Amino acid sequence: MYLHRDYRKTIDYDFETNTYKIIPYNKKFDSLTLGYADILNGRFLAIVVHNKIPYLVTDKVQIPLDDIKLDLKSKDIDEEILERKLIIKKGFKVVDTVEYTINKRIITEQVMYTEMAEVEDWDFGLLLINIFNDKARLKRYINIINNGNSAIGLTD
Amino acid sequence: MDFNFYRYVGNDPVNFLDPSGLIVAMDNHSTIPSVTPTFETPVEFLTMEDIDPNPGLMDVSDIFIPISRILGGIAKGIEGLFKGAGGVKVVGVAKKVPKLRQKYINAVKRMCKQVKNLRKAGLSEEAIARKMSAGRRAIGKNFKTRTPKELRGEIYKRNEGKYTGDALGPTIDSLIKKGKTWTEIIESSCRTGGKDMDFTKK
């Protein structure tokens, strides 16, 4: 499984036990679950395809995508640090909340002068919100994962 | 009704210009008034040569609003500048672009203006994509050298992780591997990005 923040690493994810290991990109992993993940403030968050069904997964919950609604709240901590809160809902019920921080200054500089870079490249919660808000894009991502291409990234 | 025709340039049409209606820019020969606003991040004023004569080509929401939000306090600082200079509160100058970012955007746009002519000249999409990608990387490299050293080191480190060892960003080979078409590479080479840089997702 692909690690959003660092393409040189990958994630060996076991869907049955909902556990993961971060391993170097070139090392073989045991699991066949494909997907795209990040670790936000110590919390595991991923979009995966298991038995051909796409799920949103955290270290606490595994929910089929068609059941999910996401919400992202932001709060300035100071001039540089922004706190994000990703709220995961199943129907109207909040099933999990993932809180993390990002550095606005670094991301800004990164995005400003890097070819094809966007804030979502450095903010997995934002990436999820963006793809969930765009059905065609979400479908494309799931297809990419399903076709086993998650190891080379989900750039669309 | 407001009959102050120079409000948009802080009541100072001699030293300031605003051809786009979005940015207050100083004339090339002007100097900044001797009032020093307190900026968290250094901000330079745009000169006329930095401003694109055709703002219609620019994605305003992509550029102006986010930057002003990121560099919080700039609008207040600018306002303070004008207050100090003329004792007048300026309305509508809150959206500023750091000079360096604007120069970068202009450089990318200048490069991408070639695409149409290259196609007319019969160059293949692959040749154009390679040219644009290389050009874009060169522009990025040039501008990154102007980023403070400490921050640049952090950015390069992040890029190396993100783009499997390349400090500057995705290479054309990596884009091809990801299944991008030549036309998509041309398009993405001409995008300056930053659609979420206002960080206001709530």
Your description of this structure?
The complex is a heterodimer of chains A (156) and B (202). Chain A is α+β, with helices and mostly antiparallel strands. Chain A has one domain (2-147). Chain A is built from 3 helices and 10 strands; from the N terminus they run ββββββββββααα. In chain A, the strands form 3 sheets. Chain A has a 5-stranded mixed beta sheet with strand order 1-4-5-6-7. In chain A, strands 8-9-10 form a 3-stranded antiparallel beta sheet. In chain A, a hairpin with a 2-residue loop joins strand 5 (43-50) and strand 6 (53-58). Chain B is mainly α. Chain B has 2 domains: 7-98, no CATH class; 113-189, no CATH class. Helices cover 46% and strands 2% of the residues of chain B. In chain B, helix 3 (99-112) runs antiparallel to helix 5 (125-144). The longest helix of chain B is centred in the middle third of the chain and has 20 residues, at 125-144. Chain B starts with 15 loop residues before the first strand and ends in a 13-residue tail after the last helix. At the A-B interface, strand 8, helix 1 and helix 2 of A face helix 5 and helix 6 of B.
Q: What's a quick, concise take on this entry?
A:
The complex is a heterodimer of chains A (156) and B (202). With 156 residues, chain A is of the alpha+beta class.
Helix content of chain A: 10-25%
Give unreliable regions of chain A as ranges: 150-156
Q: Which consecutive residue ranges of chain B, at least 5 long each, have pLDDT under 50?
A: 1-95
What is the makeup of the main sheet of chain B?
2 strands, antiparallel
Mean pLDDT of chain B: 62
Element pattern of chain A in H and E: EEEEEEEEEEHHH
End-to-end distance of chain A: 17 Å
How many domain regions of chain A?
1
User: Radius of gyration of chain B from the CA trace?
Assistant: 20 Å
Question: What percentage of the residues of chain A does DSSP assign to strands (E)?
Answer: 35-45%
Please list the strands of the largest sheet of chain B in the order they lie side by side: 1-2
| Percent of residues in β-strands of chain B | under 5%
Number of strands of chain B: 2
Overall structural class of chain A, as computed from helix and strand content, comes to alpha+beta
- Largest beta sheet: strand ordering of chain A: 1-4-5-6-7
Indicate how many domains the architecture of chain B comprises: 2
Main interface by residue count: A-B, 41 and 46 residues
How does the major sheet of chain A shape up? 5 strands, mixed
Number of helices of chain A: 3
Write down the overall geometry of chain B: globular
Q: Counting H and I runs of at least 4 residues, what is the number of helices of chain B? A: 8
